[in-house]
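Entry for the shared binder. Reason: the reviewer on the internal report wants the predicted structure included alongside the sequence.
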Amino acid sequence: MTSEDTAADSAGPAPAHDELDVRVARELIDKAREDGVSLVGPNGLLRQVTKTVLESALNGELDDHLGYEKGDVAEKFGVNERNGSSSKTVRTDVGDVRIDVPRDRDGTFTPQIVPKYARRVEGFDDTVISLYAKGLTTGEIQAHLADIYDARVSRELISKITDKVVDDLNSWQIRPLDRVYPVVLIDAIHVKIRDGAVANRPVYIAVGITLAGERDVLGMWVGTGGEGAKGWLNHLSDLKNRGVEDILIVACDGVKGLPEAISALWPQAEVQLCVVHLVRASLRYASKKYWPAITKRLKLIYTAPTIEAAEVEFTEFCAEWEDKYPAMIRLWRHSWEQFTPFLAYPPELRKLVYTTNAIESLNSRFRQATRRRGHFPNEQAALKVLYLVIKNPLKNRSNITGKVVGWKQALNTLAMHYGDRLDAQH
């Protein structure tokens, strides 16, 4: 064993990277305290460290470009060499940092860490887009960046940064879709958009469940007026044009004429009325003091084991409430044909189609992102925010996108009912 080996053994194992990171951080903080330097602020430690790291990285890039390190004349070849530096201010996550960018005599050096003409280091734009997706207005983002990062950013720049997602949005809106979707959930929310005057406009949303059991937002479209079957027909046609040839089950609310619009596009699709929508619509006709009793009886109908059992429960429900609330009973009779399909399915499939809860969870996040804005200047601004909500999912919100729990069991049930149509996919 050599003396070097002995020394290495006595020193113990090499510290892990995390330990080194902590040690370096502590040394920097201790040094800052000794010198009376604050961590943040124009001359704070974080900005000094950021400046050092960026300049070191840029000099390393120039070393690679020239083929030798600064001062290492022996390794130098060719006539190109360093030619001083130029100063520029870049925006980083710790605020504006003034750095010196090295140059070469031939002018052929193209930095990658801080590209030419770039005024922002990667990460800044992501921060702005993330704040925008969370519902902050351009003014609120401007104030946030000034307060937290001490960065003075105009609203126009913020708008330009968020406009970077428009190309992605446009591509997403025309992307090809699967040929067959076992389940599609459709709904609409309303947002305020200025079109001459500020008005409530419907945004139609379709969420599909793929054969692999993945939830996917298939499309969003801004309507011109109140939510209606004609608007749905126009926008659902977009799904068909993008490749959707068949849907097994469509879960939707009770918009008049919507089932007919769905059948016109996909004649074999079963239309399942969202039970949650139906119950809510029922309660609008009843006094609030009767809501608990009504919902208890309605639950006996939509959890009945068979269609025949549901009909028995409905007959008893009518006997109890028709004299008092005839409009509520008429609503159920009118909706019965679209309400009952899911009663033919076992529990694992019923949960997927009797309610549009998954899409309503998405709508809840949409409302959070749009509530603070008051209104949008145009349709694109509204869709931009909603698209960012889809692309920036929150933790623990897998019911919006992602895998359906218990999908294999549900798929087996679907295969028993619609085997030929599922097989045609392959």
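Summary line for the report: The longest strand covers residues 180-195.
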